[in-house]
Amino acid sequence: MDKTTHATATPEAPGPAAAASPERLLLPAVLLVEDDPNLGAMTAEMLAADYRTDWAQSVTEANRLMAGARHDALIVDRRLPDGDGLDLVRMLRGTGVTTPALILTALAEVDDIVEGLDAGANDYLTKPFHFVELEARLRALLRGFHAQANGVMVGDWLLKPDSNIIEDPDGRAVPLTDVETKLLAMLATSPDHVFTREELLAGAFSPGSDLGAVDVYVSYVRGKTTRRIIDTVRGRGYRIGTPEG
């Protein structure tokens, strides 16, 4: 770690990142797995400005914290008191957990890096390191993961609610308004459900809108994309369609 970033920190008792003040619940949650008390405390303190941070000092403790809270990213040391941090990553990948993981370790040989990436890690940073680089890599991991996780397939179209766009089957981006995005996202959450106009009005529109607005915005979405993206169920309402290119 860059020596210019050294600071004195008092380790706090680890606890689920979800147990945070209401204002901090909007911050991404990160699990730091590091057994060095000084480096762990310092890194956790620096991350705390932008993340809800849990700090574990062993594989066992990391498993306990992961069982009690959802994390958006993992920062994992390799040489831990009760095992290799890579085994933790392998276990997660083996059970289908795709949370992005960055290995942070002193093991810097090419073979070590290859082993880490092959084990399922998304990135690998060696010690000593600059904290600004760790932050940048963490931001990149979160961007990539959220972009993938938050995409919703609607037939051959890809809806990206966070970006207010939908991509056609050829990858061309079509901009949507907030209401159009909310309407499509709500329909896509339950593809087999027929949503009444009242349900869509309550979930996707601002207070004071009338039922006629639902029909208008369904027409807007179809006009920007394809008519088959939203199916009309006569006498009942709407459901998501299965449009093809």
From TrEMBL:
Cellular-component GO terms for this entry: cytosol; protein-DNA complex
Full protein name: Two-component response regulator
Keyword presence, Membrane: no
Cellular compartment(s): Cytoplasm
Any one Gene Ontology molecular-function term assigned to this protein's record: transcription cis-regulatory region binding
Region: Disordered, residue numbers: 1-20
Domain OmpR/PhoB-type residue range list: 149-242
First-listed, main subcellular location of the protein, grouped into a coarse class: cytoplasm
